Every structure is written in C-alpha cells, then in structure tokens.
C-alpha cells in the first residue's frame, strides 16, 4: 500500500521550518534555531516536534545530532520528552512578550435604536431556518455539474425560475436565454458599463447609494441625478437632459 501524503510529510518533518545559521557545529545551530522558534512563538507550548529521523532527513544532518540536541533542550527545560507522546515544547516555555507600539484607544459609539443607514439591513431578520431547509433540499437534488464551472449566464434552472417569477409578480415577460445571473447589483453595473456594453450619461436617483455612482464614475460614465417624489424618480426631469434621453 502506498504511503499517504500526510504520513510522508510527518515522516520527513516538513511541518517544521528551521534555518541553521552560524559557523559553529550543526548541533549548536539546531539548538539555537529551536530556542529562537520557541521564544518568538513559532513553536507554541505543547507543540509536538518531529521524530529524530524525520527532522534529520529534512535538515540533512545526522540522526544522533538531532537526538543530542533534543536531549540538551530537555535538560534546559525548553522541551519535554515522555514515552508514547514524543518530544514537545515545554508548557512553561512561553514566548517572549514583545513591546508593541501603543495604538489610539477606540471609543465605543452609540448604537441607534433604529438604524436607517443605507446598505445596512437588519441581519436578524434573515430567514435562517427557511434558508437552511431550501439549501439542503437544493443540494440533495442538484446534479454533479452544478458544483463545477457552469454557464456564464448562470444555471438554467435558476433563470427559468426567475423568468416565471418576473412574469407572475412583476408583470415582466423575459426569456430565460436573455437573463444573466449577477453577483449583486454592483456586479451587474460592472458587466454593463465596465465592459462597454452600455455607455452614459445615465440617469440615477439622487438619493441612491454613493458607491454605485462611484462605480459608474470609475468606468467613465457620467450620472445625472433625478429627484424623488411619492411615486419614485421624477422622470419628467429628463426633459432637461436631452443627452440622457438620446443615450437611452
């Protein structure tokens, strides 16, 4: 039976990176590298070290050199060695605490009772139970192809469901072949205007999201803000912007 990659990696000791520097003996260099790794926290207390043979193969040094180094560090209190549990970093060998530059204190801001800021929906209202049930049902019946690269327009099943929904709820007749699934409204704007499919100027609601207008500006599209009333955007204002109507 071929050896698994996990066993192979463990046997070679490839999960422990050490650099042996200095002009002294290999044993002294290994001991210093292990002490440094423990001191700076790369080897946390309780971490198991590779067996002698594994680390020796990985570093290209003699097995006896690794064994002697382990014994030395056990005697110094850096490591512990117990029958059946191997060699580990001693629990009392906590990393040195390094002084970090002080950071300005962040004062807690008051949380509003009713948050009406744009782009911050009430996450507590998310239908977790219904979402979990629907997701489990969809994953159970989904074909294998659904988990690989698919149609750039999106799954056909989803586009068919959307076409039916748009006709039933919004009164919009759309063929599934003419629907493109996007990763949100911003992604749709990038596809339409960033790819040069449409060009500006573009009329937008004056109180729309600022990052949507910024996204359009980054693609070179000029936006014309329209005011709002009780019925939505005041499209009558387009009479003052012939360039927008001609673009449409």
From TrEMBL:
Q: Where is this region: Disordered?
A: 229-248
Q: Which family does it belong to?
A: In the C-terminal section; belongs to the class-I pyridoxal-phosphate-dependent aminotransferase family.
Q: Where is the composition biased (Basic and acidic residues)?
A: 231-248
Q: Which ranges carry the HTH gntR-type domain? A: 24-92
Leader sequence residues = none
* Family annotation (PROSITE patterns): HTH_GNTR
Among Pfam families, the record links this protein to:
GntR
- Name of this chain's protein: GntR family transcriptional regulator
Q: What are the entry keywords?
A: DNA-binding, Pyridoxal phosphate, Transcription, Transcription regulation
